[in-house]
Fold this protein.
Amino acid sequence: MLACGFPRVFLLAAACLVLSAAAHAGAGSFSSEDLAGAFDDSGLAQGKAPGQSVKDGLNAILAASTFKDRPCAGCHQGFAPGTKGLHPIIEMDGCGSCHEAAHTRPQKRYKWLSADIQDLCVPCHSGAAFDDKVRHAPSRMGMCTSCHDPHVSSKKKLLKNEPPLLCFDCHRAEGFLRKNRHSPAADGSCMDCHLPHSGPNRKLLTDPKVCFNCHDESGIAGGKVVHAPVRASACGSCHDPHSSDRGKLLVADKLCVRCHKPEAFTGASVHYPVRSGSCDSCHQPHRSEFSKLLSQELPGLCFGCHDESEFRGKKVVHYPVASGDCTSCHSPHAGKAGKLLLSEKVCFECHDEAGFDGTGKHVKAEPRWCVGCHDPHQSDRGHLLRGK
Ligand code: HEC
Ligand code: HEC
Ligand code: HEC
Ligand code: HEC
Ligand code: HEC
Ligand code: HEC
Ligand code: HEC
Ligand code: HEC
Ligand code: HEC
Ligand code: HEC
Ligand code: HEC
Ligand code: HEC
Ligand code: HEC
Ligand code: HEC
């Protein structure tokens, strides 16, 4: 054996190989035993190439006039023509489009590659699919081999692994494994929503309205009133597209006040369903046939919880109550005054304050006293008077 024994040093010092190959041509000292066991990884044959001694093989490399003729696959049998899942370029052009002078010259580059690894694939694979507006970092950086095997794979498209495992090499899996999982993310169909290399949409989405590829658009974003973030397809502002510990994949417990100022829901009095965070008892999250995304029109909405007969039914019903305009006096959320009233002087929104200064036939009255004599909603007596 020469000092640069086979195969370990064969790799490290190809120059030595050239010398040794020349030497072996005479000495014939490579034997199949030398190669036995050296071929487990990277598609190499176990033992010597069929019908070919190692010496012949190495000599053939040196003797072949064109790269394509060089019988690389004789030893690297995993990459032999006809192998299932082989990179088509190997089928077409052998190894030479990516490796140059393998085994015959010292490695100028890693693994005798003909270009730096980040530039290797680009000459053949480029264009819009790779250079669009939003680019996936590993693809932009030419790290193609972090996802693809350059030679052969049992997975489709030369992938080293299939999504989601492929993706979890770099992206933490936790975000996908919370209690409630969105079925397409849970079953690994990442590519239903994302492009692998680049694309025109944020977050590499296949479509700016990707959700509607599966969910009925008219049921979510159709109708007279559509919530602004739904109209903008910003579904991700409320739903985690992958998984969530909350029901319906929601991203937060107090979802609505992430965007709507919480101050708008505080005051001298706060409506019970608002205090308990049940915005959904009155509003739809996506769309509605009624203004302000209400799930029902006023006053029916209020009578869903408050007994209608306490407001309408007696002989005299206050005009704004009869017309269902509860919000002309009450805030549905929180009032500046008690009982959700819009203000202390709410009666003077419609009745001229000057008429109650005591100079007319009416008593001089503090606004908050009006309801001492009048029921604001209804009465069996004239003038909405209380009592008998
Ligand atoms: C006589 C058998 C034989 C032939 C023919 C052969 N190789 Fe190799 N090749 C090997 C062995 C053995 C190794 C070392 C494998 C190992 O240690 O994993 C190797 C390693 C390599 C490596 C990896 C080098 C490294 O640094 O890891 C490349 C690239 C390579 N061969 C390319 C080629 C190409 C291209 C051809 C055709 C021009 C070719 N080989 C022909 C036996 C051969
Ligand atoms: C499309 C480009 C390309 C072609 C064509 C190609 N290789 Fe490679 N090869 C590479 C790259 C890139 C690496 C380095 C992979 C790495 O380390 O991530 C590599 C590495 C290798 C290695 C080292 C072992 C390994 O898997 O890392 C061997 C052996 C090898 N190639 C042999 C061959 C042979 C033999 C052929 C022809 C049958 C061939 N290659 C064709 C790109 C190619
Ligand atoms: C010399 C040209 C050439 C180079 C360099 C090259 N390829 Fe290819 N590649 C092809 C051709 C040709 C095809 C088949 C046609 C096609 O799908 O575009 C192909 C197909 C593919 C496919 C699709 C395989 C399939 O099953 O459909 C992938 C993935 C791929 N190449 C990845 C790579 C990667 C990664 C590199 C760099 C390590 C690379 N290619 C370098 C020419 C090349
Ligand atoms: C993050 C992982 C990842 C990286 C990095 C990556 N790819 Fe891909 N690539 C994929 C996936 C996944 C597919 C299969 C997409 C599908 O299911 O249609 C694919 C498909 C391909 C295809 C086949 C396209 C087709 O339409 O058939 C080619 C060619 C390709 N990639 C080349 C490259 C090249 C070149 C690079 C480097 C610039 C690269 N890829 C980087 C994951 C990746
Ligand atoms: C080799 C590592 C690697 C792999 C594998 C990988 N990614 Fe990435 N991905 C990254 C990096 C790095 C970023 C940029 C992260 C950042 O900006 O915070 C990123 C960002 C993203 C983004 C956000 C893009 C944006 O514009 O904000 C998406 C979506 C994504 N990856 C999806 C995937 C999917 C789907 C897969 C599997 C097919 C995958 N990734 C596999 C490294 C990887
Ligand atoms: C149903 C469509 C859908 C599926 C399936 C899906 N995603 Fe996403 N993904 C999205 C959307 C939408 C966003 C952007 C969320 C946002 O910020 O609005 C996103 C964002 C991402 C991001 C970027 C996160 C960030 O904070 O920037 C990564 C990484 C990602 N997805 C990886 C994956 C992986 C890996 C899979 C497969 C396990 C997957 N996605 C499956 C729709 C999907
Ligand atoms: C590839 C198809 C597909 C896409 C794309 C898709 N979904 Fe889904 N989604 C489903 C399926 C399937 C279910 C389960 C249906 C069921 O349980 O009734 C579901 C259920 C949901 C649920 C209810 C979850 C629960 O716990 O009840 C929400 C919320 C949801 N998706 C939001 C989204 C959002 C937001 C997007 C866009 C980022 C999106 N979906 C895109 C297929 C999809
Ligand atoms: C403002 C927050 C918000 C936005 C934005 C939003 N959703 Fe929702 N979504 C919700 C809430 C809250 C629920 C739960 C409703 C319930 O429990 O009745 C829900 C429920 C769902 C459901 C499950 C429906 C069911 O009946 O089980 C789907 C599917 C869904 N949303 C899809 C989407 C899609 C697609 C988008 C983007 C077009 C989107 N959502 C935007 C808040 C939102
Ligand atoms: C991602 C931010 C965001 C979240 C979360 C959000 N909203 Fe909105 N909402 C908006 C924007 C933006 C508008 C439009 C504001 C404007 O026109 O002044 C709006 C408007 C509204 C309107 C008035 C609609 C109209 O037609 O005038 C109602 C009612 C509403 N949101 C209720 C809710 C409820 C209930 C929730 C919780 C389920 C919620 N919002 C969560 C952003 C959000
Ligand atoms: C008791 C029913 C009810 C509840 C509960 C409720 N709202 Fe409203 N909301 C309404 C009504 C009624 C309107 C229309 C007010 C108007 O037209 O003057 C409205 C209007 C709105 C508007 C439009 C802006 C405005 O002030 O006119 C937003 C935003 C809003 N609500 C958000 C919320 C949020 C967030 C919650 C939970 C914290 C919530 N609502 C709880 C009944 C309710
Ligand atoms: C989801 C049920 C629900 C709906 C819908 C609802 N309310 Fe209420 N409301 C309550 C509850 C519960 C209380 C507290 C009752 C109690 O303490 O006796 C309350 C109390 C009130 C109070 C008294 C507040 C106080 O500080 O004492 C007023 C005023 C009121 N609601 C007006 C309305 C108006 C106006 C509407 C329609 C816009 C409406 N409510 C719709 C459940 C509802
Ligand atoms: C003209 C102004 C006005 C209108 C319109 C109005 N309310 Fe009132 N409401 C009041 C005043 C003032 C009070 C406080 C009465 C008191 O303190 O005795 C009140 C009290 C209430 C209370 C609390 C009763 C209690 O015993 O604590 C409820 C509930 C209520 N209103 C619901 C409604 C509903 C529902 C509507 C629409 C059908 C409506 N209001 C329309 C002025 C109005
Ligand atoms: C949104 C406007 C509006 C508000 C606020 C309002 N009212 Fe009225 N009120 C009316 C209208 C309209 C009439 C009918 C006037 C008419 O028929 O000449 C009326 C009539 C009355 C009547 C006379 C009923 C009758 O049969 O003669 C009384 C008493 C009354 N309001 C008391 C009040 C009190 C007390 C308040 C404050 C709690 C108040 N109003 C707040 C609009 C309002
Ligand atoms: C001390 C009891 C009392 C108080 C306090 C009181 N009212 Fe009256 N109000 C009456 C009586 C009694 C009538 C019937 C007068 C009549 O028959 O001419 C009346 C009649 C009315 C009328 C219908 C007649 C008209 O003048 O148009 C309105 C409107 C009215 N009051 C509003 C108010 C308002 C607003 C307040 C608070 C600023 C108020 N009242 C405070 C006892 C009162």
